[in-house]
Amino acid sequence: MTTASSARIAFQGELGAYSHEACRVARPDMTPVPCATFEDAIDAVRSGKAELAMLPVENSTYGRVADIHSLLPKSGLHIIEEAFVRVHINLLAVPGTRLEDVKSAMSHTVLLGQCKAFLSQHGIARVTGADTAGSAREVAAQGVPGMAALASELAGEIYGLDMLARHIEDEGNNTTRFLLMSPEADHSRRGSHGMITSFVFEVRNIPAALYKAMGGFATNGINMTKLESYMVGGSFTATQFYADIEGHPDDPGVRRALDELDYFTNMVEVLGVYPADPGRH
Q1: What are 250-275's pLDDT values in tens digits?
Q2: Which of 14, 93, 149, 150 could form a disulfide with 139 if both were Cys (CB 3.0 to 4.6 A apart)?
């Protein structure tokens, strides 16, 4: 039997990545398992190498994480929890470096774009790296005082870098939403901030199909917090939708809305029923 201390949680990226930080926040007793891609993180759970996967789905500044919604339905995994993690960006350099010594900063292009004001103010050039934690590791390996990295505090701890400036992101509410994925579904009512139901669906090829499919949620007073479309298999006609709603499938209003949705769709698949994270509010 797997105990909490021996259980593993897979994530995409290197040790010190923000997904690693999310694992430490949501499952501090589990051993993090770094993976090269989102698919590898999913496969780690399916193969039994890890018990859970931590997947980012959207960021308050950057928006949707590319490709993740198309991976969820065919993953064979279930959403059992969500976690909202505040993304703090820090300027990290080899020990002994002063802020005025830094000439360039390396990071993922998204983070570089989220720190434009600070970098411009200090005349620091932007250097694109593969990812945040990998940039921190590269800066530590090069040992050049003039080169810094933009990454998490955790990355600084892991790679032995000094923090020259904390929380330098332009937006003060930069937050990433993560989903915890498990091989087993858990539809039990739990948590103290309500429940979220996530599902994907494909509308029938009839006029106003999406409008009609959504009607049941409006008439039953169900709050839909997310609705996004994505193409399936590169087709312009086979469009699927990903949705989050507040409530549990056993709630009378939710049940009626899903029944009505089923009438106007070719496919509906529930991806998870899980407690709303306090960070959502």
Answers
A1: 999 999 999 999 999 999 999 999 99
A2: 149
